[in-house]
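### Sample
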Amino acid sequence: MSFLSATLARVKPSPTIAVTTKAKELRAAGKDVIGLGAGEPDFDTPDNVKAAAKAAIDRGETKYTAVDGLPELKQAICDKFKRDNGLDYTPAQVSVGAGGKQILYNALMATLNPGDEVIIPAPYWVSYPDMVLLAGGEPVFVAAGIETGFKLTPEALEAAITPKTKWFIFNSPSNPTGAGYSRDELKALTDVLMRHPHVWVMSDDMYEHLVYGDFEFTTPAQVEPGLYDRTLTCNGVSKAYAMTGWRIGYAAGPEELIGAMRKIQSQSTSNPSSIAQWAALEALTGPQDFIPVNNATFQRRRDMVVDLLNAAEGITCPVPEGAFYVYPSIAGCIGKTSHGGVKIEDDEAFATALLEEMGVAVVFGAAFGLSPNFRVSYATSDENLKEACRRIQEFCAALT
């Protein structure tokens, strides 16, 4: 018998981390590689947040905190939900974890039994299905393709629900597509969920503040108050506040669920970093004026990347509503052969050849559950983006 748990055979390492690691290795070996795989802003953490962390260290805030968050931070999170989303929560309804990923994982571990189903629209963030599998559940994928703007339709959601469905995972704006649901589009989905009271909603709102143009962000419990008692609204400081490495995520929901998540965390990691919590408190309560400034940069990059990729032969790139990703289709490239002799049979072959022949690292669409596509993160410099897109154009032009 293997020494390792059989559960591990159900999951795979994160493909996005693998691509970023591969790009770094090639760069360290002296190769000219532009990495477009990282899911983190290239902006620095705001100075006031860094100063708050340093002040916390100087005050000696270096001891254990409450298992799932400082009281001060939990109150700030309640205030944030009220201010930004019109949702009323008490600190007892809030959980703080070491990143958004731990929050989602704790909730799934605390609720899933063997055979429980979790509906996940595809394309999806790569970790959703593997976390479901680790927790003993069964992911149920529902395609939301380019023809619907990478958004799940109410009809598709309705058809996927069974008596075994326990959770519906919702992510807007989306990783990997950047697609954001309008209030009316979200209301159509919540109308379906109201007909199925056994289905809970896990809303991953990590990209809430990264939206562009006149798009208005909304979250399920805000759009449909009837879902409040069976919704876990998840968020964090990683993306909007450029704090990916600080590892602070949070969620609010029913007290029973939050208590179960606390129990999981108490026997795994215990509290998140005390210093990072004080930094997150400053992020949520301090000046927010840098967010629209950063967003203007992201929107300009988005528009540039969309234009340049749509100029590449065989590529179709929709305009996303938010986040910092685009998810172009390479349907027009499938079946062709690269200049280096690689047959482009699927998006993984496309991404591999693009990296080896042109030095551009992207994440292939199959990793996110929908092909033939690839994900580009435009959270990098204009110079890198222009050169990467030029290389992609050159690569596509050479396909025969």
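The longest helix spans residues 290-310. This sample (Aminotransferase) is used throughout the tutorial notebook.
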